[in-house]
Amino acid sequence: MPKDAATARLAFEIVKTACSNCNLRELCLPIGLAPEELKKLDELVSTRRRLKRGDYLYRAGQVFESIYAVRSGFFKTDVLIEDGRDQVTGFQMTGELLGLDGISSEIHTCNAIALEDSEVCAIPFSHLEGLSRQIHTLQHHFHKVMSREIVRDHGVMMLLGTMRAEERLAAFLLNLSQRFKARGYSPAEFNLRMSRDEIGSYLGLKLETVSRAFSHFQEEKLLAVHQRKIRILNTEGLKKLMTHQRG
Amino acid sequence: MPKDAATARLAFEIVKTACSNCNLRELCLPIGLAPEELKKLDELVSTRRRLKRGDYLYRAGQVFESIYAVRSGFFKTDVLIEDGRDQVTGFQMTGELLGLDGISSEIHTCNAIALEDSEVCAIPFSHLEGLSRQIHTLQHHFHKVMSREIVRDHGVMMLLGTMRAEERLAAFLLNLSQRFKARGYSPAEFNLRMSRDEIGSYLGLKLETVSRAFSHFQEEKLLAVHQRKIRILNTEGLKKLMTHQRG
DNA sequence: CCGTCGGGTTGACGTGGATCAAACGCAGGG
DNA sequence: CCCTGCGTTTGATCCACGTCAACCCGACGG
Questions:
Q1: Which of A56, A85, B88, B177 could form a disulfide with B187 if both were Cys (CB 3.0 to 4.6 A apart)?
Q2: Is B96 in contact with B175 (CB distance < 8 Å)?
């Protein structure tokens, strides 16, 4: 696998930033903090990094120092094993945290790649631990975020272990829809930032199967699909498909 | 599904306990703590619970208050969705923590069930947060444990998403072997505490497939299997099978 | 304008594991 | 001792998804 220009690049811009006037503060780490606590958090989030589509935020094997909050843009994380197989473990959007997997061994265990031009806030982890020893709310919120990641992963395990192809895709789309909605975007119409192949990798399916499922959903009038542009026409239908089925 | 005696029972014995003289302190939360810190931890781990095989430690939907450290015995956790499908999300043995999934919403999101007579230490979570604000090492260690759970889940996602049946079982057995070894037991010979069905649920396979894979491993002289008693005859062979294959 | 290229769609076919079904074997109870 | 029941094994068949291959289509460059 040759290193192309994008994967080789790790350069990025650094911008001064502050949580206290970030419009994501209701979505991100600062949730529920008092104004004076928020000010302390400002000192913590020292740098902002800009990444172009295809850039690596970090790579498996790199030393872990910071976690990252997505300020804008869209990421995927993936793990790969010796024999070449790989799997997308998640897609991260605005306000979500990246890098939690690195805490355990002080080494990142997956790659994080920008799927579109993006910005992240880097949060040095030792600072975060320091500050969360002072601010209960921050500590508790951080624990909740980690726990939520575990719960999310269990959901994916469920999906991979028990659902069939179309159920998986329906679950995936409904989840995306949900998350766009929470960010003030239309839950019914959005652009996929990832390829069919990346969706397949996440869902444990081949891209052809994903493509066929999209086509079938269109025939069933559940979706309108134009390349990566998705419009959900029948949310209930998708939900039913997700739980119902299974002979 | 009728509630039988075992599933209905939630009663348990309570025993006074102390981390400072627990022989698991190198495996469990106390890792790396100084003696005086250890003493503080003793106050925190207030109660020990005994469970019989089949007892629920907690159930999905119950209010989350404590995490639990397995002192002896063996557990499984599983999630289930409306339509009746369920999936085992993990097996926990001595020194491992249970209940981390409950932190995010203050409600347990899975069931934890003893697969043999077991004992756990209950650790009230708010106390743990309090103490980890005082003891850096404890705080950091706890974060590592949560992170390790995330990494583990990614491994399972990888397994479910990309491996075929025999690779999954090989990976599963090698993982168990590893964990028994870390606890001072033979890595080559052990008893499975779970049924073929539970293994299958965890690995995203049907019990028949698990059974056939066991039989095939025996033919290949990789294992000796007598019901739930497993002896690994060829670790390297299992490892090769795990990574190698794939046309 | 056309040629190329990468991602996506669609079709034909093969297969790994699910499903269905029968039989086995150990454990527990009478 | 035999009967019963559950977990497991094993076999026969089926089908969802993977594989392989052709083709489409919008983007981009010359």
A1: B177
A2: no
Query: Which secondary-structure segment (H or E) carries A112?
Result: strand A111-114
CATH number for A163-243 (one of 3.40.50.880, 3.40.50.300, 1.10.10.10, 3.20.20.60): it is: 1.10.10.10
- C-alpha to C-alpha distance for B29 and B70, rounded to whole angstroms: 11
CB B97 within 8 A of CB B119: no
- Per-residue pLDDT at B217: 98
Q: Could you tell me if B33 and B41 are in contact, meaning their C-beta atoms sit under 8 angstroms apart? A: yes
A9 — alpha (psi -120 to 50), left (phi > 0) or beta?
A: beta
User: Which is more confidently placed, A215 or B84?
Assistant: A215
Return the SS3 of B89. strand
pLDDT of residue A225: 96
* Residue A84 banded pLDDT, cuts 50, 70, 90: confident
- Smallest CA–CA distance, residue B112 to chain A, in Å, is 14
pTM above 0.85, yes or no: yes
**Nucleotide closest to residue B226 (CA–C1'):** D8
Q: Among 2.60.120.10, 2.30.30.30, 3.30.530.20, 3.40.50.740, what is the CATH number of A5-138?
A: 2.60.120.10
Out of A129, A150, A204, the one facing B100 most closely (by C-beta) is A150
Which residue among B79, B143, B155 places its CB closest to the CB of A158? Answer: B79
Residue B113 confidence class, pLDDT cut points 50, 70, 90: very high
User: Is residue A190 within 8 Å of residue A230, measured between CB atoms?
Assistant: yes
- CA of B208, C1' of C22: distance in angstroms: 14
When pLDDT is cut at 50, 70 and 90, the band that residue A16 belongs to is: low
Average pLDDT over residues B199-210: 98
Architecture of domain B5-146: Sandwich (2.60)
Beta carbon of B215 within 7 Å of strand D? yes
Where do the structural domains in chain A lie, given as residue ranges? 5-138, 163-243
Using alpha carbons, select from B109, B114, B92 the residue that is nearest to residue B28.
B92
Distance from C-alpha of A190 to C-alpha of A178, rounded to nearest angstrom: 11
